[in-house]
């Protein structure tokens, strides 16, 4: 077939779809290298294999395919004076066990093992294992159903011993779990979930996750002690110490026993999911049908971390906590919660930023959805770990709260009336009175602030106000930009109206020097209208 025919048949798209069904890097490479076949006999053979595979799948249950990543290079060195370490022998063990498991599976299905069976055990599916092992070594079953090598070479005997002893080893179950088990997680108050590696392992029926992945899901601070080989988990009011060397657990001064210790695999520390989750009032549920583990964070916290620090805010009690360097958490203070907190859907966040070596800026945007949205925005300046200054802005409505609290390494603290600008050392360098600057008797959200201007929006009226700090005057922008007809219309709509959101909501889109560019949509034509304002003129 020529290139034009392949393009007309969309062969590359079909080949990409085929690659998506593979379960190993080797399988993907095989699919990506696949070329059209014109030999009728080979096409019929492939169709027969496909029919056999469909019949096999129709018998039910899952085909026991294990991950094959990274094994090919190891197998290619068999018989070439390569001395394997324990971890590499473990990989080979897992590989051989996967083949034996596949053969037992097919025998158990009692199907005719013709083309498909031969292909599974041949060069087509396992080219390296076929040529390096099955053609050169005689294999037999050892006690417990595992594979053993008959030849009496030292390295072969070592490999056989590892194979027989590691049937339930951590590395072999890790390879299988990585390709077949999924992780889901839920949280009571966190709306943005952490990114995790999706790696896990199963040993003796217990699920293990990498140390820091589980800590992220459960909002725990974790400190690893390399010398003592212990991991300390911290949450306000609770601590837990686990070790790779002992089953003893230390928690809040008490000692307990755990039936399985931590595991180290590929230089990563793995911890038992269910035990740690339940210790911190969470849950870990296993769905055997979908092979999914669901981890639930039932804590009342939202949290954030910065370097070796972690901050938690209790969304039920309004308490803020901080921990540094693996130390016990301390209370920083209590702060107002939005109405409906703990009952309505929550979309809250907390963020920490570094201002200097010892000073931090902490912003908490608390939002609870009910009939409308109830917001409380807290800004906190922390100096040497203690709260130096705090602002609180409360707002309720359908229009989203847009409030800027940082610019040019400065912190902006506002209650909607007064604005304080602080530098990185915690000094108040500017104070503004929004009502005096605008002549509007209302609280306002600050959408933009610089040294030359501020954009503010009153809570009860849907128009954008520009405060020109150079000219020391304010401008209701709709009065400068709109026609008289549109001015009258805009004054009679509210934040909740469709007309406001579609036609009257001005937006700052860019700055060029001292010139600001705003846009909105025309109510007559639907086109985008652009307006400009130059600061100081």
TrEMBL record:
Protein's UniProt name: Copper amine oxidase-like N-terminal domain-containing protein
Annotated source species: Paenibacillus cisolokensis
Matching InterPro entries: Cu_amine_oxidase-like_N, Mao_N_sf
Superkingdom of the organism of origin: Bacteria
UniProt xrefs under Gene3D superfamilies: Copper amine oxidase-like, N-terminal domain
Domain Copper amine oxidase-like N-terminal: 196-295
């Amino acid at each position: 077939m020529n290139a034009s025919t392949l393009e007309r048949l969309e062969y590359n798209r079909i080949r990409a779809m085929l690659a998506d069904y593979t379960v190993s890097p080797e399988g993907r490479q095989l699919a990506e290298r696949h070329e059209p076949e014109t030999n009728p006999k080979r096409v019929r053979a492939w169709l027969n294999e496909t029919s056999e595979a469909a019949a096999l799948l129709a018998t039910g249950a899952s085909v026991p395919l294990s991950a094959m990543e990274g094994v090919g290079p190891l197998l290619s060195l068999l018989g070439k004076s390569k001395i394997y370490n324990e971890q590499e022998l473990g990989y080979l063990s897992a590989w051989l066990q996967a083949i034996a498991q596949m053969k037992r599976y097919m025998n158990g299905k009692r199907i005719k093992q013709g083309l498909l069976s031969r292909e599974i055990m041949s060069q087509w599916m396992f080219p390296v294992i076929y040529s390096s092992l099955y053609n050169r070594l005689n294999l037999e079953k050892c006690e417990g159903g595992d594979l053993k090598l008959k030849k009496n070479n030292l390295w072969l005997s070592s490999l056989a011993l590892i194979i027989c002893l590691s049937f339930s080893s951590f590395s072999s179950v890790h390879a299988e779990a990585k390709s077949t088990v999924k992780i889901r997680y839920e949280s009571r108050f966190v709306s943005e979930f952490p990114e995790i590696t999706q790696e896990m392992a199963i040993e003796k029926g217990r699920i293990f996750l990498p140390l820091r992945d589980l800590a992220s899901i459960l909002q725990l601070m974790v400190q690893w002690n390399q010398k003592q080989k212990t991991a300390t988990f911290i949450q306000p009011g609770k601590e837990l110490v686990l070790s790779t060397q002992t089953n003893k657990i230390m928690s809040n001064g008490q000692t307990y026993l755990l039936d399985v210790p931590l595991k180290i695999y590929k230089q990563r520390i793995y911890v038992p999911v269910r035990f740690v989750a339940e210790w911190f009032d969470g849950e870990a549920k296993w769905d055997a049908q979908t092979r999914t583990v669901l981890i639930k964070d039932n804590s009342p916290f939202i949290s954030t971390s910065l370097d070796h620090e972690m901050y938690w805010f209790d969304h039920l009690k309004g308490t803020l906590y901080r921990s540094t360097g693996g130390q016990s958490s301390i209370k920083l203070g209590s702060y107002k919660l939005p109405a409906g907190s703990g009952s309505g859907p929550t979309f809250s966040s907390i963020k920490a930023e570094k201002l200097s070596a010892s000073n931090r800026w902490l912003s908490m945007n608390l939002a609870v959805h009910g009939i409308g949205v109830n917001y409380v925005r807290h800004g906190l300046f922390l100096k040497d770990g203690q709260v130096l200054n705090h602002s609180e802005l409360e707002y309720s409505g359908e229009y989203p709260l847009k409030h800027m609290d940082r610019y040019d390494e400065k912190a902006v603290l506002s209650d909607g009336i007064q604005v304080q600008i602080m530098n990185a050392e915690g000094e108040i360098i500017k104070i503004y009175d929004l009502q005096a600057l605008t002549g509007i008797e209302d609280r306002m959200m600050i959408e933009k602030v610089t040294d030359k201007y501020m954009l503010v929006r009153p809570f009860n009226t849907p128009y954008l106000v520009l405060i020109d700090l150079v000219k020391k005057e304010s401008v209701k922008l709709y009065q400068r930009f709109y026609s008289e007809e549109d001015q009258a219309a805009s004054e009679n709509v509210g934040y909740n109206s469709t007309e406001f959101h579609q036609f009257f909501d001005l937006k700052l889109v860019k700055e060029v020097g001292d010139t600001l560019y705003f846009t909105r949509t025309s109510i007559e034509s639907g086109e985008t209208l652009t307006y400009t304002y130059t600061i100081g003129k």
